[in-house]
Fold this sequence. Notes:
The protein is an all-alpha fold. It has one domain: Serine Threonine Protein Phosphatase 5, Tetratricopeptide repeat (Alpha Horseshoe). It has helices spanning 3-13, 18-30, 34-47, 52-64, 68-85, 88-101. α4 runs antiparallel to α5, α4 packs parallel to α6 (88-101) and α5 runs antiparallel to α6.
Amino acid sequence: MDRIEKLKEFLLAEPDDPFVKHALALEYIKIGETSAARRLLEEVLTKDPGAVGSYYQLGKLLEAMGEVQRAMEWYEKGMAAAKAAGERRAYNELQTAYEELL
């Protein structure tokens, strides 16, 4: 069974699991299913604003989709979440991605 199908099975068992949604989104990105990936990452961040790693992935996805302003907005939210969580490395990664778009 491929990774996507396995992750979908996990998601059926635990529909709100942010880790599984994030992992499935990354698999969708790999195969070019950007709409599905975006939806999943936005769901993760809506339900769990502290899921710091998802901000970077969503921002990069939006950049690739040509939605630079939206990417910057998510990077800003991610920097705030990372700062609040004391996640210095994540903050720096988000800040670098943000500044590259300025």
